């Protein structure tokens, strides 16, 4: 795992390099010619020798690469390339990707099985190719102006290169709803994300941009599996294979264990694969997972390290968070997540993590509510009548005091409404119509929309890459640790999609039924069949004084720049006031955290 940076600007880039050095403390490399400067900070995981140094060049020195990630099928691709006459100087996956691109061009990205954010520079063509894995596990940001481009693993590395930085006013209503900026949007208008699976070809001579997407699935026809036993065995076999590949490493690999189904399944399959990872866990008082992580580790006879959340270490980590993030977030679990990685530092360079299980198997309540929607046309989820409501009826629809049952029976008749109701950071009417229209357009233009049941779409292809993966990457890389996610393997994804939705999803109280059936081979029922709990934490309990103090400053800032931050003329502007601070914290703690992180990030980087 690494940090990458590049620019066509003729500026000194030492500040940008310093901003991502924590991502790769083992080695770094620079390259500069008349067209571009490239930098990579390396966290050595595969081929620890100098042969893995980057930027890396092909034999003709006309193609170079900087790469962040891991390719788990690189040995298979390498074998094919050797048969085609290629020779290799290293045992790294980076060289395989470099020479794979030399042979196949952008088609190589559809052959990869792994996580990546990479940039290749073709000297002869004067062309850059930027690519990111299909699930958005690894981040890549960029800013383009005419024939100039700057790109990096983190937003903070771009900032020293930019002469202008502007809050992304028109996108803020999405942030206030979701607690993150979806799609290619960021908090700054000039900076965009490379989308999951996106391939951007940028011509340095003309400034021409071409975009395409790597495939997840190659074959179009499939026969759905309708037998539960067959499906359970297939899921077990496929995830085991993914877990085995995710242990490919020249350094020890640990495992994040919450005691929930997803991480417990990975722990069991790790043992099945002949691995003995140290399990790292964080204990939160009042969490439903309390004690289960230790029980799972004990049952599997795996080493176990637990970090207990206290008021002191929570407050310390709260203060450290502002040096970690460079985008605002409404996810309070960023704090315990980054805290556990601070514990892992110097103990393990690589860990497996369980993100993706809920998104693939329907682990959220909204998935069960809409489990039968896979046979319906998505257009019906966003009926035209919803957007032609008279204003008084629309406000009635948006009114947060309406009962849950009434909302569900009347206005919440669509997937978009249900998702927004259950996923937004606060039950506040913040441009609901515009948000639903954005969701509709997002779905209709998404390259992978036909590969997943609609009831899973927004969680798998919006919430997961732009919230969960951002949190996982920034929290782990802040401490020089690589986090791997075996559930987000394209072959496992295709296996899950080969199972009939009728048995993959359950409309009963039992969520993730088919996955739990697969787990019974390894774990006792009492560790599998129990009430689900999230990785939530009540910020009011652990840091109320700090939060109220920061909220006071955040409200002042948002009122001062209400127009730039998308609050002016919104129906919540009057709520974001100092005399409402305690009310906000009592009723909408996630929204409060969204305001605070937005204030901390924007005020740090945007000089008004």
What would your notes on this structure say?
It is a single chain. The protein has 608 residues and is an alpha+beta fold. It folds into four domains: 2-213, 4-Layer Sandwich (Glutamine Phosphoribosylpyrophosphate, subunit 1, domain 1); 228-360 and 464-527, 3-Layer(aba) Sandwich (Rossmann fold); 373-455, no CATH class; 546-605, no CATH class. It is built from 25 helices and 17 strands. A six-stranded antiparallel β-sheet has the order 2-3-1-9-8-10. Strand 13, helix 8 and strand 14 form a beta-alpha-beta unit. Helix 7 (228-246) packs across helix 8 (261-272) and helix 7 packs antiparallel against helix 20 (490-497). The radius of gyration is 24 Å and the shape is globular. InterPro entries: Asn_synth_AEB (IPR006426), Asn_synthase (IPR001962), ASN_synthetase/amidase (IPR051786), AsnB_N (IPR033738), GATase_2_dom (IPR017932), Ntn_hydrolases_N (IPR029055), Rossmann-like_a/b/a_fold (IPR014729). GO terms for molecular function: asparagine synthase (glutamine-hydrolyzing) activity; ATP binding. One of its GO terms (biological process) is asparagine biosynthetic process. Belongs to the asparagine synthetase family. It is an enzyme of class 6 (ligase).
